[in-house]
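User: Continuing from earlier, I have the next pair ready.

Assistant: Great, send them over.

User: Here they are, in order.

Assistant: Folding the first of the pair now:
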Amino acid sequence: LNVTAENYEAVVRMSHDKFHKKLTFWMPTSDEFS
């Protein structure tokens, strides 16, 4: 898999957003992790 720095950053940001949204379901203070 050939991933450029920009693509890697985008993937990390996308998975972080998904993780962040999951956190908000049970942890309202998830903003601490952003």
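And the other member of the pair:
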Amino acid sequence: LGGNNFLHLLMSSSSSSFFIPNFEIGEALCRLLYRELPLENTTNKRMYEVFLSFRGEDTPASFVSHLHTSLRNAGIIVFKDDESLRRGDEISESLLRAIEQSECSVVVFSRNYAESGRCMKELEKIMECHRTTGLVVVPVFYDVNPWEVRHQTGEFGKGFEKLEKRILTECALRAWYRQFGIISAEELGKLWRLGIKEADEVRMRETLREAASIAGHVVPNFRNERKTIKNIVENVTHLLDKTELLIAQWE
């Protein structure tokens, strides 16, 4: 019986087998049982169990493909973006909704992950949901040190600097075009920081620090990927089980 039906049966039954001498005690018992039983209403259930965030051109296709397949073979519903539909740094509304409708996100940090404005927008949305809706985040550091991601240093930091320069260039171009309609390379150098929102850079750095501070999996490119993927899948499965238990306890 579902929670509602069980509660109704106990409170309305005239059968001697369900006789409860004290109505208040009976009501308290019913509420306790109702809380412990699974709810029939599944309208709040999220569409995906895992959202997979990665930079395809920077991560071996075999690793992401095997990770995706292994998660699905474990019975996990995974959202993996179609790389062929990606266009520059833009991120679609459907992708943002997919993040919101996921219970967990596996973020595969690679050397040039932060060079992609699109990946950074994904990560900002993922961490926003982590803070506001309890989205579980599992970082995977593929051929990159967590320290480099946390502090934007080394090869990872170089990729982030490229994104910063691209943003600054775009902001300068927009500002110059709005003012004069034309721009030269010389003037662009003078206006390098014109129009840049310092808060954007600070926010992106803080997002990386926050995400890279979560316990995750370090994957050197020479390690046995099969064993690592197995560990990731086991970790995700365990976290999803804990998430479902927590939801059941509080709903």
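Worth noting for the second one:
The radius of gyration is 25 Å. Residues 1-43, 192-196, 245-251 have pLDDT under 50 and may be disordered.
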